[in-house]
Amino acid sequence: MTEALHRLLANGLIDRRAHAEAPPRVEYALTGLGQSLVDGPMNALGRWADEHGDELLDAQERSARSIIDARVITTA
């Protein structure tokens, strides 16, 4: 998680605010750039997943079955 937060910070997607408290406390918040990512592409991806989720699951199940079938054939 720390590495992911550092990448988000480095790319300007989040801000970090450290509080001088005991125990230490840090808050993270989206920047305007980060919010634009959520509002645009991430929401579009969510809508796409809602629309095509069943197709994705079907494809994953077919793939898993073909892997299992291939293992059965090679070990038989």
From TrEMBL:
InterPro entries: HTH_HxlR, WH-like_DNA-bd_sf, WH_DNA-bd_sf. It comes from the Bacteria. Residues 1-57 form the HTH hxlR-type domain. It holds the Pfam family HxlR. Gene3D superfamilies: Winged helix-like DNA-binding domain superfamily/Winged helix DNA-binding domain. Coiled coil: none annotated. Signal peptide: none annotated. This is HTH hxlR-type domain-containing protein. It comes from Nonomuraea cavernae.
